[in-house]
Amino acid sequence: MFAFAAAALLTAFAQDPAPQVEPSPKAPAFEIELRSNALVRGLRLTLGDLADVQPAGQDAATIANIQLGTAPTPGAIRTITRNEFLQTLVANGYSPTAFKIRGAVETAVQSMVISIGQAEFVDAAKIALDAVLTQEGGDVEYELAAPIRIQQVQPGRKTQELRARVRGGATSPSSAVVDVEVMVDGETAKTVPVQWKLSRFHSVLKASQAIQAGMPLSPDNCALSRERVSQTTGLYLTSMDQALGLITKRSMQPNQLVMLSDTGQPALIHRGDIVTVVLTKGRVKIETRGVANNDAGRGETVMVTSAANRTQLTGVAEASGTVVVRN
């Protein structure tokens, strides 16, 4: 009887399986504690700017480096909620169950700010402007055309520098603009135009004393002078070599600039001279005599009155006593 009861009990246990034990939920792989406030560097916002990620390690560092977009502009505040934080994690391929988020409900983010003054922008702009002016050549002076306000920018996480270039790669006759970029971690945070006023100079010949008409030009009565280009519009002599062998057509005062039209060749023919007039037409050449009506240097125009019939002829002084008339 006892044996039968034991066998029945064993059969009952065999038919009724043991109850299933529910597995305990898997603990989150990372714990994130949000800060209520964050002061950040650079132009880009990362998760690590807003929160501490544990446990520390390579995986935590990767999560901390995930970007949340651009940092707020200087003086502005950007608010990031827990939901935005979690959505960013999911968008980067993480499961929301892998994180336990604690701390603040939202984070108020502000950018760190530093000031860059006029002197720094001017120094950067001068380097670029000097390089272009050297390439263009010429005698040029420049001055700042307008003051530059102090600029508020974010400091870089790794690097920050000023990069300048002349707008258009060239200067105009009287001005230039240099664009100075504030580079933060290799990105342009702000561009500040620096405007310059240019003064160009060149050497021109100037009378160093009073010069009478018909006097030859020489180092004794004229010298080179550095003058602003805007004040010397016209054809001026720019070297002493150009003046040698020339005379003044009119009287000049001390410090008067010598224009090309003020000069001429020494007279080969003088007014009243008896000259030989050579009339040429094709291969035909006829010579006659006449009287010069004005002074003329080589290659200059001279009016001649024909001795034969008092006809007025216009020719070119070719040599002393010779005028050529070409038809």
Describe what this molecule looks like in 3D.
By secondary structure, this protein is of the alpha+beta class. The protein has four domains: about 25-110, eubacterium ventriosum atcc domain (eubacterium ventriosum atcc fold), CATH 2.60.480; about 115-200, no CATH class; about 200-265, Antifreeze-like/N-acetylneuraminic acid synthase C-terminal domain (Type Iii Antifreeze Protein Isoform Hplc 12, Alpha-Beta Complex), CATH 3.90.1210.10; about 265-325, SH3 type barrels. The chain is built from six helices and 24 strands. It has helices at about 1-15, 45-50, 60-65, 80-90, 120-135, 240-245; strands spanning about 30-35, 35-40, 45, 50-55, 65-70, 80, 100-105, 105-110, 115, 140-145, 150-155, 160-165, 175-185, 185-205, 220-230, 245-250, 265, 265-270, 275-280, 285-290, 295, 300-305, 310-320, 320-325. Strands 10, 12, 13, 14 and 15 form a five-stranded antiparallel sheet that branches. It starts with a helix and ends with a strand.
List keywords for this structure.
327 residues, alpha+beta, eubacterium ventriosum atcc fold, Type Iii Antifreeze Protein Isoform Hplc 12, five-stranded antiparallel sheet, five-stranded mixed beta barrel, 6 helices
Which SSEs are present, and which pair or pack?
Layout: H1 2-15, E1 30-34, E2 37-40, E3 44-46, H2 47-50, E4 51-54, H3 58-64, E5 67-70, E6 78-81, H4 82-91, E7 99-103, E8 106-111, E9 114-116, H5 118-136, E10 139-144, E11 151-153, E12 160-166, E13 175-184, E14 187-207, E15 222-228, H6 240-243, E16 247-248, E17 263-264, E18 267-269, E19 274-281, E20 284-292, E21 296-297, E22 301-306, E23 312-319, E24 322-326
Parallel strand pairs: 1-7, 2-8, 19-24
Antiparallel strand pairs: 1-4, 3-5, 6-8, 9-11, 10-14, 12-13, 13-14, 14-15, 16-17, 18-21, 19-20, 20-22, 22-23, 23-24
